[in-house]
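Posting this for the archive.
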Amino acid sequence: MKRILICLSVAFLLGGCTSEYDMPVIPTDPEEPEIPDTPEEPEEPDEPSLPADTLPYPARYLVARMDISVDGGKEITSKRKEDYLDCTIKIESDTAVWNYEGRGRIRGRGNSTWLWYEKKPYRIKLDEKAEILGLAAEKDWVLLANYRDPTHLMNTFVFEMGAGLDIPYPNHSRYVEVTINGDYKGLYQLTEQVEQGKNRVNIDKKKGWLLSLDVDDGPQESPAADDNFWSKTYFMPVCVKSPEAEDYATPATLINDAYDALGDLEKIIRKHDYEALSKVCDIPVMIDYLLIQELIYNVELSAPRSIFIHKDKGDNAKWTFGPLWDFDAGFDFDWSHMYTGHNYFANFRKTVLGTDPARHISDYTYTPSFFTDMWKDKTFVSEVKARWKAIKPRIMTEFWPEAKRYAEAAADAMERDAMRWPIDKHYATEIGRMESWLERRTAYMDIIVNKYPAGN
């Protein structure tokens, strides 16, 4: 009986914590669904008392231990490629066959997450390809610190949703407690590096395209780089992730060819021609990708940042949106405290794509029209509405419960991380707020999608 009561207590902490929101009220028509008020926020929860390794979950949810020993005890102070440090990596898992020990290199990674926050993210490159915690063998891995995200779940939720909707080449989540040179660094999310590869974005190494639409990697913020350009029609910052110059048949024309290839897609989107677009772009994936961005209110779409699009070789290959990446700027993050804050979930009524995307009726009117011009086409809008109708019931019954299992299994590790990196938020309370925000966001987005203008 005591064990049952403890389990119920943890379930309450991780699933029942909500907060009251202070937000503007937007009048709605009488027939619109009513969005429920949020219950009064409970007091700060006590420390969860059930050890993660006793929870009845499959191995992928459980937290492993990663010990990294940098040669000579050197400190990791740079994210530059030339500053990788040699190291030994040891992973201990509750699943014995997932234990690992090998040599590799480590450096910092990220942009704002590396510059602004004490808890640093890292990039690992193994000397030899290896399966890590049940994930397909590769050399390159990422340790996301999730310091800004008080729930540790924002990326995981989107990764799970993307996988559930069959968006190609989804990232996976594995949680690890990291120690570097004997210093406990806290709870990290281990996932794949977004890159070309047989077990990553599986496109041809020499003739496929993997592009990142990203301000930080583009020509404005990285003018010295030789792998970026401004796109032809929508003037978006683009970085060529693959092919690399040495792999391309004619390295001197790499950027010009990428410019033209993406420009052909832009031209069709500008004309908002559904039939023409269907021949060169995977429209169902495009719709799912953009609906996810709007659902979690990912303002990075407006910059843009961390937006990937890829295309394999061949005359019949289509441009495909994804993989999905980097979502701790969503969920109504409070940018007024971006250097120190961990404030989310205040307002579920804001939009990135907008209530009328084709006319940029949105909180972010400068979102590139590359993402919104297709709303001028009636067939596209009809497909968006039909797809949302299919997705909506799965958000809180399938995708969110899947993400929350990781939190339940990692409760003890989250508490240790909170002791190592104390902030003004408690993870269990914030997970409850995230759940409530998603419930209300889903209901509000249902109003938005159903009212999208029909297009021409």
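Confidence is low (pLDDT under 50) at residues 1-33, 35-55. DSSP finds nine helices and twelve strands in the chain.
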